[in-house]
Give the backbone structure.
Amino acid sequence: MYKVIVIDDEMLVRRGIVMETDWQTLNCVVVAEAGNGIEGLEAVRKYHPDLLICDIRMPKMDGIEMLKELRAEGNDVSVIFLTAYSEFSYAQSALKLLASDYLLKPFGDGELEQAVSNALEKRKRTCSGEENSARNGGQLRAGRAARGQSE
């Protein structure tokens, strides 16, 4: 099961996402909720999730700043940003931080589920690619060592 954290300062929105989404079908479990970016950082560091569903504009620390901090720490968690604001600067910031998706609230039926499915599929492909690269790199080094060559 993929671990998910939902971060939104609007409690009703956050609870709605947690309660109304069929996480089991998506092979996910919500491990934590947070009401702002600072709480979100703490939850990410504690639970090491695969996916964040995160509002952009929140008190104390917004979603963009939170993700900047996570990326600076080397955390590659997948993120779906949510916002009620359609300003291009938010989408641009999200893209620069390699967010998986960007949804405008309120989103339509099935829209969040599709974004989650896409983000996790992309994550799975990326992880498989990294494993293959590491495995192939190890085979290349082993082959060179057997032939007495250095890299």
